[in-house]
Amino acid sequence: MRFRPNYFPWLFFASPHRAAIRLADKQRQDYGQQTTIFLPGDTVKYSEVQHNHSIPNILHTQFVLNSNRDKYYLNDVLQVDKKNISSYSGLTTDSPAVNQVLKDNTLNFSNEFNLIQTLKSNRIVQAWSYISHSAEPEQLAISPGYNAALFNNNEPYAQLIQNVNIPGWYTNNYFSFRIPSNFITQSFKTGFSVQSQTLVSGLNVVQNNNRFGAGPDSALNHVDWTKKKLYAG
Q1: Which contiguous run of DSSP H or E holds residue 56?
Q2: ∠82-159-107 over CA atoms, to 5°?
């Protein structure tokens, strides 16, 4: 026999399939502005010009395994998202030009597993599991050396590089047992979940001879936390 619709109205039969979507694009933006400020006895004028362009590459893939048989249902969905975005910005004011390059590389994946089976006693067991991971390393490069007094002891330098990443994990898993009857269905479930995340960031100073050096200690971060939970009902 198949599962009765009043218990599992979403069940259907489908063969394994996969899908992938990719997006590649290039975006450009030019901006210019002149500002005049009138003060008592003085006038301040400055101009600002920006040339920006961004190159996003986005990939989404999904694989689904589904089987619906007598007294047995299995569904597994794996998704992967990858995003690479390079952004370039040139800013020119009355002071020396500042160039910025931002590289944003994101990788996310998740898997959801669901198994439902009817035993010979007509009781129903279910095993469900979900796990996901996300990471988004970013790198920002600013050149030429910006604010040497703050970042390099007032010595000229070539480039300032900032790296940031916030990787995270999450999983939720449970096992349930159901006893159906004509009047009432008893259900018991137990499971656990774990969530963790880390923040890592830092600055590096690239000298004019291409040597790397660490930035100020106040610009470094390394924080992580974990949350765990057990449940039953």
Answers
A1: strand 42-69
A2: 10
C-beta pairs of 91-96 under 8 Å, 24+ apart in sequence = 91/48, 91/49, 91/50, 92/48, 92/49, 92/50, 93/46, 93/47, 93/48, 93/49, 94/46, 94/47, 96/144
Cβ atoms < 10 Å from Cβ of 89 = 16
R_g over Cα of the chain: 28
Among 18-22, 37-41, 101-105, 112-116, the least confident range? 18-22
Domain ranges, ordered by start, for the chain:
19-232
pTM of the model: 0.73
- The kind and range of the H/E element at 151 are helix 148-151
Buried-exposed string 141-177: b where 16+ CB fall within 10 A, e elsewhere:
bbbebeeeeebbeeeebebbbbeeeebbebbbebebe
Residue 84: name the closest of 142, 22, 30, 166 by CA. 22
Q: How far apart are the first and last CA of the chain?
A: 28
Measured CA to CA in angstroms, residue 162 lies from 52, 211, 217 at distances of 19, 15, 13
Over the stretch 173-225, which tens digit does the pLDDT of each residue have?
999 998 887 788 788 999 999 999 999 998 888 888 888 777 666 667 888 99
Segment 159-174, tens digit of pLDDT: 889 999 999 999 999 9
